[in-house]
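A.,

Following up on our hallway conversation. Structure tokens first:
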């Protein structure tokens, strides 16, 4: 990782006046007119949104705002009622999840989906791109896939080391703590060499002692050239690591912008941030000064 990466916040990501749906200079993901209803409830109703490439974007909003549903739609885990979207310039509306991940768009889940009765290492190997042994004909020719299997294992071990899970490689995923499972999911997502990594609440359930390393991992993804889109309720984390923030409420995008601007937006504070803003996490990434946000005046 380049030495100064942690201190570099990307700026100049948008084009023109900042407003919900504002165009980006170099978008990796562009979505239009995405709606998804459950019964009478419109969970997602996004007119237009662009996610900037090579940046870390936070998607925030109250419980039930539609963040996870929006993730599910964009990654092909759910189908919208209307809408089109493209990833890296290619239309991927309706493309199922296993294909979008091969194209370089991976995601992790709010509730982790590690396979409990497989080992940590086996979970990692499942994250690799199309494997030769999976094809019926090549499966019968072991010399074709053994070498690839070795390479995949080496890559998995390297990633496990990076996420400090290497000592757990032979343990069942079921034996990991909630936080370790989150790390395993992130590590597994990297097995397919993604260009866009989408993380749904990466900090939820993670032991505070792991917070700093998790922040560093996410900054590391950007340093390695990836784009990150993450959902998070922890405003300190959002403030420390994101280059851009998008606010969702009741299915819609209600605000977006650089983190400090969005968090000063009174509508956002009233709708969502409220008292979360009064203290700082104390985690220093070196990216921004650790300051205490001013208390809101009581009305
Ligand atoms: N499969 C489903 N069936 C019915 N309703 C659903 C389903 N999935 C989500 N919803 C509803 O859609 C709305 C948006 O939910 P979603 O999980 O996307 O919110 P969220 O922003 O991720 O919230 P949180 O911050 O709590 O994770 C909620 O009202 C939720 O109850
Ligand atoms: Mg959610």
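Then the amino acids I'd put at each of the 299 positions:
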């Amino acid at each position: 990782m380049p030495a100064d990466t942690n201190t570099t916040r990307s700026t100049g990501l948008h084009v023109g006046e900042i407003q919900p749906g504002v165009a980006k200079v170099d978008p990796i993901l562009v979505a239009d007119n995405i709606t998804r209803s459950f019964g009478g409830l419109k969970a997602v109703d996004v007119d237009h949104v662009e996610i900037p490439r090579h940046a870390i974007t936070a998607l925030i909003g109250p419980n039930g705002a539609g963040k996870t549903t929006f993730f599910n739609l964009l990654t092909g885990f759910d189908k919208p009622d209307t809408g089109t979207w493209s990833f890296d310039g290619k239309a991927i509306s309706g493309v199922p999840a296993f294909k979008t991940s091969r194209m370089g768009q991976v995601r992790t889940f709010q509730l982790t989906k590690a396979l409990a009765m497989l080992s940590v290492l086996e979970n990692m190997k499942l994250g690799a791109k199309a494997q030769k042994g999976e094809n019926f004909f090549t499966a019968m020719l072991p010399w074709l896939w053994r070498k690839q299997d070795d390479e995949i294992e080496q890559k998995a071990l390297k990633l496990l080391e990076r996420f400090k899970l290497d000592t757990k490689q032979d343990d069942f995923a079921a034996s990991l703590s909630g936080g370790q499972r989150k790390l395993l999911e992130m590590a597994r997502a990297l097995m397919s060499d993604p260009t866009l990594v989408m993380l749904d609440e990466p900090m939820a359930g993670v032991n505070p002692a792991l917070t700093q390393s998790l922040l560093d991992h996410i900054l590391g993804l950007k340093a390695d050239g990836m784009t990150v889109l993450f959902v998070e309720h922890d405003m300190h984390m959002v403030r420390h690591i994101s280059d851009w923030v998008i606010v969702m409420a009741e299915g819609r995008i209600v605000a977006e912008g650089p983190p400090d601007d969005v968090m000063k937006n009174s509508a956002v504070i009233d709708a969502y941030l409220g008292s979360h803003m009064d203290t700082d996490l104390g985690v220093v990434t070196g990216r921004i000064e650790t300051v205490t946000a001013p208390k809101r005046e009581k009305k």
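Residues 1-5, 275-284, 289-299 have pLDDT under 50 and may be disordered. Curious whether your intuition agrees with the design.

B.
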